[in-house]
Write a structure and sequence with these properties.
With 296 residues, the chain is of the alpha/beta class. It has a single domain, classed as Rossmann fold (3-Layer(aba) Sandwich), CATH 3.40.50. The protein is 39% helix and 21% strand. The strands form five sheets. A seven-stranded parallel sheet has the order 3-2-1-4-5-7-12, sandwiched between helices. A two-stranded parallel ribbon has the order 6-15. Strands 8-11 form a two-stranded parallel ribbon. Helix 1 crosses helix 5 and helix 6 packs across helix 10. The chain is globular. The mean pLDDT is 93.
Amino acid sequence: MNILVTGGTGFIGEALIPALLQRGHDVSVLTRQSAPKQLPGVEYVQTLPSLSSTIDAVINLAGASLAGKRWTAAYKQEMIASRVDLTRALGEYFQSTTNPPSIWLNASAIGFYGPQKNEELTESSPPGKGFAAGLCREWELAATEAAGGARLSLLRLGVVLDTGGGAYPQMAQPFRMGVANWIGDGQQWLSWVHRDDVVSAFCFALQSPDLSGVINVTAPEAVTSRQFCQAMRQVHRTLLAIPMPGFLMRAMVGEMADELLITGQKVLPARLSSAGFEFSYPRLDLALERIESTSS
């Protein structure tokens, strides 16, 4: 299968592409970088007309990080454009071709559900409120329009944990300095997932013709911020345990704190579980042991 990956040089893409190659697929990567770090056997293009072959499937991962910068008006627009505008451009291009892709896998995020308390959220749960929820809704709508007649899967990712990128290096930093902490009262839910399971979920969706629509990609066992702290203390020697006050987080990162850090969601991977998907890291302790063993 010939697969186009956007965001292929990012945290998830750099792990997904080798997995696709190992499964015998041909991979093209759409990138804005003039000289990206290249993998053998992968075609890198900066424009869609530069593609050398017909594309059978699109995996759309591109998007500026929600936690990359303070949410200024300018950065909010960048987050929207990098997701919504790019997705629309992909759709316009492929719908003008003779043989458009038959499969479209589009990343999204559990931010779709907005800040929640203790409600268990599945793929049928309604959208929430806030900027992140609105962004996810716009992105998913753009993907629905762009996919045309292709089988569309919308993969809502939880907080992706692994070495080398994503949220984990920042989350682990205080623990590596001997300080265990949690955010606010520590009761907010963290719906996490190991990057290896994200890669496996995309590959699973790619080869599952009946798996279309929304798919939550989170580990089966969400944890609270305090539980995450406890699990981290099992893999890091800490001397002090203190909370990170909510007001301090707001002062440090602004609006992002209320949507991504002080609040959370308890999201369940109902459709993956019912489809028979097996997580390599269903529990946080297993994921942390793996991450720390590969980072040392």
